[in-house]
Amino acid sequence: MQHQKILILDFGSQVTQLIARRVREAHVYCEVHPCDVTDEWIRDYAKDGLLKGVILSGSHASVYEVDDRAPDAVFELGLPVLGICYGMQTMATQLGGKVEGSHSREFGYAEVQTQGASALLQGLSDGQDASGADVLKVWMSHGDKVTALPPGFALMAQTASCPIAGMADEARKFYGVQFHPEVTHTRQGAAMLNRFVRDICAATPDWVMQGHIDEAVAKIREQVGDEEVILGLSGGVDSSVAA
């Protein structure tokens, strides 16, 4: 009943649960927790050795208008980290880069040109542009953008209006993408997340939903023993799943 796991920190994106779904479709266990957990919580969460990587979600907010940050401990664990949209922007600002508002916002379909041979994007392509460079067909939803890379990071992807659409620090296995790989509109998105959790994080793909149900039932039976359970069921989704 012990699985290696991915931690997803939620900054308020409406599609955070899609990140979790993609990770679970890769048969890797994951949990979603709020972004404002403490450094102590992060270290305690990782102390059993099962945590293999962290994903920072997107958000509707701007990094320079709110105080939502990833706990510093996330970047001190020695584990891979993937920042998506706002997650990339907070990673950039916290590690010494710069984020600014953009005069040319991107909402919807976009083509990003990949740069270099990052472990995250290498070999992934939806074709080539007029210059012969590989491009990825993705979904963007942002007004701010990273305008200066943090120390140690290299450019991983770009668009005409977003010169830093992806960044990578291969030494620390930190990656950031301005687009959303969790949505189906990003054609190679599932492949990117699969590569992050299974190859870069090296998480064991041993988790399936049916197995989780069996494990949860066994755990409840062990906890309850010969006692009785009072179950309140409203008929809603959450309590029905709990039941």
Descriptive account of the structure:
By secondary structure, the protein is an alpha/beta fold. The protein is about 25% helix and about 25% strand. It contains 6 helices and 9 strands. Helix 1 (about 15-25) crosses helix 4 (about 190-200). The model has no long low-confidence stretch (mean pLDDT about 90).
Number of strands: 9
In helices, the fraction of residues equals: 25-40%
From the alpha-carbon coordinates, what is the Rg to the nearest angstrom?
Answer: 19 Å
Average pLDDT, to the nearest integer?
92
The helix count comes to 6
Structural class: alpha/beta
Described by the principal axes of the CA atoms, the overall outline is: globular
* Beta-strand content bin: 25-35%
Strand count, sense and barrel status of the largest sheet are:
9 strands, mixed
Write the element-wise H/E pattern from the N-terminal end onward.
Answer: EHEHEEHEEEEEHHH
* Uncertain residue ranges: none
Biggest β-sheet: strands ordered side by side in the sheet = 2-1-3-4-9-8-7-5-6
Q: State the distance separating the first and last CA atoms.
A: 20 Å
Summarize the structure.
The chain contains 6 helices and 9 strands. The protein has helices spanning 16-25, 39-46, 86-94, 189-200, 209-224, 237-242, and strands spanning 5-10, 29-34, 51-56, 81-84, 98-114, 135-148, 154-158, 166-169, 174-177.
